[in-house]
Design goal:
The complex is a heterodimer of chains A (115) and B (115).
Chain A (H helix, E strand, L loop, with lengths): L3 E4 L2 E5 L4 E7 L7 E6 L6 E6 L5 E4 L2 E6 L4 E6 L8 E7 L11 E2 L3 E6 L1
Parallel strand pairs in A: 2-11
Antiparallel strand pairs in A: 1-3, 3-8, 4-5, 4-9, 6-7, 7-8, 9-10, 9-11
Chain B lengths: L4 E3 L2 E4 L5 E6 L6 E8 L3 E9 L2 E5 L6 E5 L5 E5 L8 E8 L10 E2 L3 E5 L1
Parallel strand pairs in B: 2-11
Antiparallel strand pairs in B: 1-3, 3-8, 4-5, 4-9, 5-6, 7-8, 9-10, 9-11
Classes of the chains: A mainly beta (115), B mainly beta (115).
Chain lengths: 115, 115
Amino acid sequence: QQQVKQSPQSLIVQKGGISIINCAYENTAFDYFPWYQQFPGKGPALLIAIRPDVSEKKEGRFTISFNKSAKQFSLHIMDSQPGDSATYFCAASTLFSGGYNKLIFGAGTRLAVHP
Amino acid sequence: KAGVTQTPRYLIKTRGQQVTLSCSPISGHRSVSWYQQTPGQGLQFLFEYFSETQRNKGNFPGRFSGRQFSNSRSEMNVSTLELGDSALYLCASSSKTGTRSGELFFGEGSRLTVL
């Protein structure tokens, strides 16, 4: 019940296209859902985060869509650029499982944006 | 502002040895979390420290331990190393903990290889 399932495992998108990564969870106590971006040789960096009281959050070309009833959330990258090529991790946490800094991560999606 | 600094960046140990990894958080951050990243298990939470106290612990054996000093610097120790402990160990700092979620700032990690 603590798992966060992420798909696809890898994704190839053409420059200018839309990249979509999906995550699903079981634990209804989760109430904080961040997305992290990781480049090779670097640590993950927070991209965008959402709480379940909103269905969508947009920051620049990055949008999180959240479906509470389906227990799913997704990351959309609009106008994908080669510089977006990285591994993306969704995550979830809840106060009741140890606090918001204890993140349960998805397995990651390796995104490649071809020019 | 300097980021999260982890030392050493790379190290090689043999089975049965022990290892100590160090993390200096961003100045002013009092929460330090540790994560293990492996190709097979992904990113997994080890523990979180705040004001020198362990707040949370993940599902790792007692061979994994940590501590935090009064200046918020943290160390983690792995005793009796096993081959499966080979991983990238990531430290993350945050200005918030517990009931308040905060962005986790990750270091570049310490890559441990156990032979």
